[in-house]
Specification:
Elements (H helix, E strand, L loop, with lengths): L1 H22 L9 E2 L10 H18 L1 E3 L3 H10 L2 E3 L2 E3 L4 H6 L5 E4 L8 E4 L2 E4 L7 E4 L3 E4 L2 H13 L21 H12 L11 H15 L1 H6 L4 E6 L4 E2 L1 H12 L3 E10 L7 H22 L5 E4 L1 E5 L6 E2 L3 H17 L3 E2 L12 H16 L4 E2 L5 E2 L4 E3 H18 L6 H4 L1 H7 L9 H6 L15 H6 L5 H14 L8 H16 L7
Length: about 525
């Protein structure tokens, strides 16, 4: 009797432990995606050759503008380019020669070394939405973003398993002065998360602040010898490089920090309406920008960027998840690989105002396109709404959940002895079922990707639990992650030094909202 009671207690205790394990909060980050599937390529060798030749013609005969930047013009002149006013014409082959010093892949170090990422090759690193001035959630609707919203997104990024990167301006905190908000954003990334993050590009001085804060976090020598930031340098398409973005690029390249050189393309407005014409312009702009980074510091890490949408010819609004944008993205991936450069594109793009069916269709098209086109750094991978004007909390967790499906698809089809499952086929035989066989029992926990959000319950159970739709489930998921957030540890001396740096910088200037 005593033995039986003891056994019951042991079983009960084991069950309780298993239930506790299932319900406990686990802060887990999946490793960046390593593709075991081929890239989808749409351009033939002939088409690639035509586009590359045309891009060289654009650079040599039409040229690009480097505005309000005499230093850049002098660097190009010294390199052998023809300068006329602010127009830079780059002789055929010169940009490609300069690009040859850029690395084909690089490691961006996180303050937690286990979360460092390798950008390039067959890898895909997912980072959240970037830049929206508005946020949206069920409780507050659409509103201007605040620093509290920003910090909440950083916490969600940290708690989301399938996000590898904390991102940059996840939303624009409009309640903080323009000239100071980059300090608060960087501080949030550095203290509320231990994933990699992005630096500020809104002014060269803010890029320098980003470098100096990283030197506090990582150590000055480490920063100079390693990449700890990836930052977004947009080109003002068509073919214009402004002094603000180029000034930020100069700071980062000089300090060995990575830049995404990315045209901002809305087909029909900032690039031709044709796919081949857009690809020609994208390639010319990227080649000029990356070549310039190598004039600053040969070997500086860079990423070939392509932000692509088309235009609605009735309203003038950008459209997303369209066939044309997909074709441009697939083609740009091929061009990036031929240059031997990491590739940035795609994301959870949609034009919808709400996380509805339109958002789901367009986002699914965009995310899968990113995986199949060979993207190495996917900015905007979750949270994007309303053409990038809004960062949505509910859509953030919806998209972050779906990134897990990309991880599963990228694994491809392994054919190990266990994967062949011949023992299971023999055990079950004709007319049986696999639920109880040894192979299923050994593999069921890891065999299938499992959503942390979607509802697969029977109708009766779903109805009894309130008949909640995906938006309601996402609202609950946001609350669960935020309520269970646990900050990563940080050396108190480093934290104090960061706080002191931010306070001193803020005290040194008056507030400006311009």
């Amino acid at each position: 009797m005593a033995e039986a009671t003891s056994r019951r207690r042991a079983r009960s205790g084991g069950g309780a432990a298993r239930r506790a394990e299932r319900t406990s909060v686990k802060i887990e980050t999946a490793k960046y995606i390593e593709r075991n599937i081929p890239n989808f390529e749409v351009l033939s060798e002939e088409a690639l050759g035509v586009i590359e030749a045309n891009a060289e013609t654009v650079l040599a005969e039409i040229g690009v503008n480097f505005v309000d930047n005499p230093g850049a013009l002098q660097r190009w002149r010294d390199a052998g380019a023809e300068i006329e006013g602010e127009r830079v014409r780059i002789p055929r082959g010169l940009a490609r020669k300069l690009i040859a010093t850029a690395p084909s892949e690089f490691t961006q170090h996180a303050r937690n070394p286990e979360k460092s990422v390798v950008i390039g090759g067959k890898n895909l690193v997912c980072a959240p939405v970037y830049g929206p001035p508005f946020v949206r959630d069920v409780a507050g609707g659409r509103r201007y973003a605040t620093i509290a919203d920003f910090e909440k997104f950083v916490k969600l990024s940290y708690m989301s398993k399938w996000l590898h990167h904390s991102g940059g301006t996840v939303c624009e905190p409009t309640d903080v002065p323009v000239n100071k908000r980059h300090l608060d954003m960087l501080l949030a990334h550095m203290t509320l998360s231990d994933k990699p993050f992005m630096g500020s590009v809104t002014d060269p001085s803010r890029a320098q602040d980003s470098v100096e804060m990283c030197e506090i976090l990582f150590g000055k020598e480490f920063v100079q010898n390693n990449t700890v930031m990836t930052s977004l340098i947009n080109i003002n398409s068509p073919m214009t490089f402004d002094d603000v973005m180029m000034g930020a690029l100069e700071v980062y390249a000089k300090n060995n920090q990575a830049c995404i050189i990315s045209p901002f393309i809305v087909g029909g407005a900032m690039a031709p309406v044709s796919v081949a014409g857009t690809l020609t312009q994208v390639l010319a702009e990227v080649m000029a920008g990356i070549a310039y980074s190598q004039l600053i510091r040969p070997g500086a890490p860079v990423i070939f960027g392509a932000f692509v949408s088309s235009i609605d010819m009735n309203s003038g609004a950008p459209t997303f998840g369209t066939p044309e944008a997909s074709l441009v993205t697939y083609g740009a991936g091929q061009l990036a690989r031929r240059l031997g450069l990491p590739f940035r594109s795609s994301g959870s793009f949609c034009g919808s105002k709400l996380p509805d069916a339109q958002a789901a269709y367009e986002t699914a098209n965009s995310l899968n396109m990113g995986l199949m086109s060979g993207v190495n750094f996917m900015l905007h991978s979750c949270g994007w709404l309303e053409g990038g004007l809004v960062a949505s909390f509910e859509k953030f967790v919806m998209d972050a959940d779906q990134l897990g499906a990309l991880h599963g698809l990228a694994k491809g089809v392994p054919v190990s002895e266990n994967d062949q499952a011949m023992d299971a086929i023999r055990e079950v035989g004709p007319g049986g079922h696999y639920l109880g066989c040894a192979h299923t029992q050994a593999n069921f926990k890891t065999a299938f990707w499992k959503s942390d959000l979607c509802d697969y319950k029977p109708f009766e159970t779903w109805e009894e639990e309130g008949a909640r739709d995906t938006m309601e489930l996402a609202t609950d998921r946001v609350a669960y992650l935020v309520d269970n957030y646990q900050a990563p540890s940080l050396d108190p001396e480093i934290r104090s030094a960061l706080l002191a740096y931010v306070a001193a910088k803020k005290d040194s200037m008056a507030d400006s909202f311009m």
